Structures are given as structure tokens and as C-alpha cells.
Amino acid sequence: MSIAASAVTFLGQQADLSNLKLANYTIDPSAIGAKEVVLRAIAAPINPSDVLQARGGYVPPPYLHDLDANTKQVYVGGNEGVFEVTHVGSDVTSVQPGDRVIPSLSGFGTWRTALVAAIDDPRKTAGGKVDAFVKVPADLKEAEAATLTINPATAYQIFHNYHKLEAGDWIVQNAGTSQVSQYITQLAKSRGVKTLSVVRDGKSKAELDKLYELGATSVIDESTLLSSDFAAKLKEIVGDGHVRLALNSVGGATASALFGAVGQDGYFISYGASSGDPQVTINTSQQLVNNISVVPYWLTGNSKRDPQSRIDTVKEVIKLYEQGVFRIPDVQEIKLDGDIASFFVKAIQSPGKKVVLFD
Amino acid sequence: MSIAASAVTFLGQQADLSNLKLANYTIDPSAIGAKEVVLRAIAAPINPSDVLQARGGYVPPPYLHDLDANTKQVYVGGNEGVFEVTHVGSDVTSVQPGDRVIPSLSGFGTWRTALVAAIDDPRKTAGGKVDAFVKVPADLKEAEAATLTINPATAYQIFHNYHKLEAGDWIVQNAGTSQVSQYITQLAKSRGVKTLSVVRDGKSKAELDKLYELGATSVIDESTLLSSDFAAKLKEIVGDGHVRLALNSVGGATASALFGAVGQDGYFISYGASSGDPQVTINTSQQLVNNISVVPYWLTGNSKRDPQSRIDTVKEVIKLYEQGVFRIPDVQEIKLDGDIASFFVKAIQSPGKKVVLFD
């Protein structure tokens, strides 16, 4: 029996998203290849990077999809999502019907209700093709499972790829309320590493309390970071502690001030520029005396160089959820209703991090 | 027979150098220890870092010296120099009278006419104590031998420690006429690596010609670097070449503009701030997309972490002189005349890189 499916597709990138279109197509599970599976969507987030991708910023999608004989060579939106395996080809042993899986690499096109997919990802690592999917445990919440591969994976790699952080070390970060910062905070807390999070001025006490509940050691606002007595304030906060990592996803004056906090052999890591100002000014005398490395972090770049590293990271992230180290930061869970393209286009327009729950 | 010696000493760092004093002392070669040698000075440079050290900037000297019973616990100026071995203790086999040697590590106190020294340096590496001296071949010029351990060693490590540079790759550097830049230029030329050197506005044709003679591929002035069409100019100069390293020893606007030239997987390396402005502004979007690392380089820091690395580097530098890759950039050679302290203090006041030739 064939399955009616639909997707949010686009062809060519348009700033106004007018190219996002509904595509309806059918899937015949009896006709799938020996190494293919049929997947039914459970949940998929709408990430800023997904939207940027359709608007023409960021990186273009890596794959064009043939959804059926009528809908060929289109991009499908979305880079994260969790699916249920409903049918498997005759040679598939790694998953079985009923399993919940996530695409192990980005660019999969997750904004679709159902699809046929190969069990091997065509992207190769040094060791050969990689598994296209990672199985997720049944006890992970839908929204948690749907958002494993980007924000918590970024936090995990930033935390582990630079400094061997020891209990008592400090991380300073701007955009303290961002998803990545919240995962960093939880991970640091679990390892005894302290965090100083900088948040925008005017956050409510409830928002700050939420960060402290997640495990933040100290939270200050941008005005405090930019004030002339920040050095004294920092000393008061960290005492004899070492600031090993500074994490910048904001840019501009806030980032430049954050650089001043980095200590001996520290890393200043930029992974975004949400202020719209990517300029950061560093003091090279401080850099030389303290031996500070100023480096970029980009999950997508790392994953292109070494796809398996992302899969390994996602498996570690799953463990952190199972150990209770991670819980998902606030997201709006919204139930898919009506045609998928209209629904996603409308959802993109309203603010806040969202996870769409499919039927 | 005892030897009359004298040194430029100081105790406490003074910005006006009023603490630099003459010390006269005598050496009794018959009284040296089994693992000691007597050295006679041949040549020693006056480096800006030597002067900064006596003025209280930079790093303090690592050792206090006992010159004789009357002159104890003083610092001796100078971190580089070449000496002749005149006497050796009964257990010394690594050098013999007549050999020319240089102190393998900085902080030796080279502004003195003769001295008694231990053959092992007390600083330890993972492998144990290091040799206090490196023998230099007799055919190296005095000024070349006296200046092996700082500028050419810095150039060698910068060239080798970051990117595996391949023929056709590009290095961009400001302070194009500096000693380090000139060694970088010669080393790059010998490996088929291209250099774009930025020099201060208003340099004479003769000065530019000198850089081209050393092997510079292209030389531009700071105004060209800072102009709005520098990107187009750069494209014209490097074509499809990759800029792998940017070397900054100037700081300020010139350094920030230089950052814009760095290509994929490149390094932006700061090792000084001669403009007096250590601030450098980097574009983190460019940094992320091109995966650029912004790192400091400090020979002294490296040598403290791994003293043997400096000795190994100096041996490589000697080979480069012997292979004809390196020739010494212009220095004023001045003959020691009168009392050593008055002579050095006077020499420090006049401009230009100097090497003092002892009697």
C-alpha cells in the first residue's frame, strides 16, 4: 500500500522564502531497494541555519532530491529531525521497523512527512561510507531526539576539542541564553567546570534564575562586561581560577571585551556573530604574554572534514541525555497542522526556537 | 696568569638605563672547575629586547651572576653573542680551546669581555640538562655568529611551526624591512614559497631593491595595504596562490588590514607590536569560513617550555648560513673602544641594529 507524503521544497535560494513550496508525492514501500528504508517523520526543528540556507546565506544544501517522478531535483528544507523506521529493505540489518532514528549528518532534508532513504550515507570518511542514521533510545523526548545533531553537538565539540578542562577551570561566554550556551553550561556543571555567562541587558530575574538552575556559576549582563571596572569584577568572580575558554557567538564590542578575560594558554573561540558585527578586536600583547589562541569553530566544517566525528559526537550527546546531564533548553513544540509548506513558512515568521511535531 | 675582564651590569631595571654600570673583575683560568670553560668575547649585538630588559619592559633576566668576590649578584646585559673558548676544565670534552661557541639559550649575559661558564645549562628539558653552548663553524662571519639565536631562529620557527608550506604558497608580512622579515624572505625564497612584504610608506627604491634581492616576491607600502582596493590588488599579486601565513609584528590598522589577506586554513601570527598599538581587529566571519587560526609566536616562551627546541633551531639556522640560504641583513658593526659600559650605553642611544666587535 502506498504512502502519501509531502515536503517543504525549494529550488534556488530566495531572501523572502517565496521559493519554499509544497510537494506531494507517494512512496511505495514494496518497491524500495535492498539497502533502503522507509521513514515516517516524528519531529523536526526549525533552526535559524535552516532558514538561512533557504534564504541564500550560510551554506547551500548539499543534495538535490528526487521525491518522485514528478518532483525531481529539488532541495528539501531542514537539517535535523527524528524519524520512525516503518519498512526496511531485504539487506538492512542495522535498523528495524519501530526504531527511532536521526540522520547522522546535516543536509538530509528533514522537513518532510515520510521518505525513502539509503542506509549508507554517500559521504565517505577515511574508513569508508558512514551510517546514514543513528538510532535514538525510546525514552528520549521527541524534541530532544529531533535536536541532537546541531546545538548540543556544537557544545560538546567546543567543550572537548580545545582545552582539557579540569574541575575549577572557567569558561566565559556571551549569548548566555542561547541554546549552545545552555548546553555548555550543563556540560561544564557536570564536570565541575565553572561558567561565567554574559547575557543581554534587561533579562528578567526568571531568565537569569533559569541559567543558574542549569548550572551557571555566574551570570552578568553586557553593560557589566563593557564597563571600565570589568577586570576587577572578573577577578572578584573567578578569584584564582583560570579562564581557559572564551566562547563568542555575538561579535562586536561584547566579543572584544570578552577577549580581555582569557587567561594563560587560553582559547578564544568564535562560532557565530549574532550581533551582525563579526569584528572582534584583540590585544596581541595580552595574546602573546598569555599564549592565547584565537580560533573559529564550525560544526559543519568539522563534519565535512570528518563525517564520523559528528556521528561519534551525537552518540556522546545521547549518553549525556541518558545520564541526566543534558535537558533540552526551552523550545516551542508545535503540532503540524494543514499543509506542511504553509505551516513551516508561517512558523518561520514567528520568533522563538521551534520543534514541529508531526502526526 | 689571570685575565682582566669587564662587563655591563645592572641591578634593578631603570627606564633611563642609569643602572647600567661597568664592572671590572679578574678570572683565574687555573682555578676553574672540571666542567667549566673560560670564554673570550668575540662579538655581541645590541638587540631592542636587550635594552627593554634593562629598562624594565619585556622579561627580566633569568640569572644573577657572581663576577668575582667583589661583584656578586648582578645582572649582565645581552642575550646573544659569540665567544672563543680559551681554557677548558679537566672533564670538558664537548669543546676545546680555539672553538667558537654561542650560548644556546637567552639570558646568558653576553655584554662582557670574558667569563667562566659551566658547560651544562642548568635549565632542564624532558631529556635532562641542555648543553650551554652550540659550536659555530669558523667560516661564519662574526656578526652572523653573534646573532644566530634570536632573529633567524624566530624566522625559522615561524616558517616551520604552523603550516607545512609548499612551493607556490604565499606568506604576507608587515614590517617587511625588519630583521625577522628579511630572514623569512630568504627562507621562503629557498623553498619556492612566495612573500608579499608590506613596508612603511616612503622607503627608498634602494631599500625596496634590497628586499627584492633577498628574494621578496612582492613589496607594497602600508598605504596600498590600507587602501580600499587592496583586495583587488592582492588578487592581482597572488593570483590563484594561497596565503597560508600572515606575520604581524606591527599591530594596529596595518595588522587588521593584513588579516584580510589570509586564505583557507591559514594562520595569522603576531610576534610583536612595533607600532605601539597591539590592537588587531579580525573579521570572525572570514575567520570561520576560511578556518583561520590567530595565534601568538614568542621564541622566549617556546624556549622556556622546551629549551632543546631552541638549540635544535639554532643548529638548523647554522646550516642555512652554510648552505648560502641566509645572509645577515644590514647591521652596523662597531669596534669596542674604551670602557665597555660607557661604550654600550652610548651605542644604545644611536639608531640602527648594531653588533659590537670585541678586541
TrEMBL record, chains A, B:
Intracellular or extracellular location(s): Mitochondrion
Q: What is a GO molecular function of this protein?
A: enoyl-[acyl-carrier-protein] reductase (NADPH) activity
Enzyme Commission code(s) on record:
1.3.1.104
The principal localisation class reads mitochondrion
Protein keywords: Fatty acid biosynthesis, Fatty acid metabolism, Lipid biosynthesis, Lipid metabolism, Mitochondrion, NADP, Oxidoreductase, Transit peptide
Record's SMART domains? Answer: PKS_ER
This enzyme catalyses: a 2,3-saturated acyl-[ACP] + NADP(+) = a (2E)-enoyl-[ACP] + NADPH + H(+)
Source superkingdom:
Eukaryota
Among InterPro entries, the record links this protein to: ADH-like_C, ADH-like_N, ER, GroES-like_sf, Mito_Enoyl-ACP_Reductase, NAD(P)-bd_dom_sf
Q: Where is the Enoyl reductase (ER) domain?
A: 15-357
**UniProt similarity note:** Belongs to the zinc-containing alcohol dehydrogenase family. Quinone oxidoreductase subfamily.
Kindly provide the name given to this protein in its UniProt entry: enoyl-[acyl-carrier-protein] reductase
